[in-house]
Amino acid sequence: MGNHVSSPGSSRRPAGEWNTLSTGGVGMSPEWSAPGHSSTRTATDNATWLTSCRGILLDLDGTLVDSTTAILRAWRIWAASVGADTYRLPELVLGRAAADIIQDLLPAVPPQSVPGHVRHVLELQETDSTPGTPLPGAAALGQSLVGSRWGVVTGCSAELARVRLASATVPVPPVLVTDEDVHAGKPHPAGYLLALERLGLTAADVVVVEDSPVGVQAGKDAGMRVIAVATTNPPVALSAADWVVADLAELRLTTDDEQRLLTFHTDPIR
């Protein structure tokens, strides 16, 4: 990408500066350029926004796959087996590492016992007959990423990630970072930092796509631009992201040499 933000009739601005443009009565939408990158609002498709990157990292659950029912089902079975409360599960389990959830629900559990509990929960999810369903736009985006530098960063196991990717008809990416690869889950940026290393790219070269506040925080703390999809959380809860869209169906991917061009075909929600 270039080093400046530009739009028809606008002056060029230093990279990294916010540029807020009118969007034809829809409201005001932000546009951002990282150092060494540019973002451009094009004149096509009513109000199309364009940003480019060399790599893309996506969350799995809630971004590519709707696995909420399967996740809650497994956690309720586990909670019943250990006598843990279940009323807090919906607010605790989505987008977080299993070990962190277990320590929240069983604060007195010995640290050496946590891996066994994690394994139990993951096995319940891996053997679920309905592991998930594809979210809007997931399959199309996944297929368009073939041959690109991309990855998935998730709090589940590698086996479970493959099961859920298959349920969404999304190919296994060249980079897959799971709970087994890192010492801390989201919102810690460890997963995204490891994915960057495996992609061989810098943070300024990569865009993250997330659905949860903790995931957005992880991507931002790793130094990357973040697109949030409002599939599991309202847009206001995702305000730390650079852009918020309804779901992956709002994104299109085209290729220009080494660049991967992510295009919003409707205005971002924010």
List keywords for this structure.
alpha/beta, Rossmann fold, 2 domains, four-stranded antiparallel β-sheet, 22% strand, globular, disordered N terminus
Could you characterize the architecture of this molecule?
There is one protein chain. This protein has 270 residues and is an alpha/beta fold. It folds into two domains: 54-66 and 133-250, 3-Layer(aba) Sandwich (Rossmann fold); 68-126. The chain is 28% helix and 22% strand. The chain is built from eight helices and 16 strands. A hairpin with a 7-residue loop joins strand 5 (39-41) and strand 6.
- Widest beta sheet: strand line-up: 11-10-7-12-13-14
Secondary structure category: alpha/beta
Poorly predicted regions: 1-47
CATH topology of the largest domain: Rossmann fold
How many beta-strand elements? 16
Topology pattern, helix = H, strand = E = EEEEEEEEHHHHEHEHEHEHEEEE
CATH class term of the largest domain: Alpha Beta
**Inertia-based shape:** globular
Q: Total helix count?
A: 8
Beta-strand residue percentage: 15-25%
Q: Major sheet: size, sense and barrel closure?
A: 6 strands, parallel
Helix content: 25-40%
Name of the CATH architecture of the largest domain: 3-Layer(aba) Sandwich
Radius of gyration: 19 Å
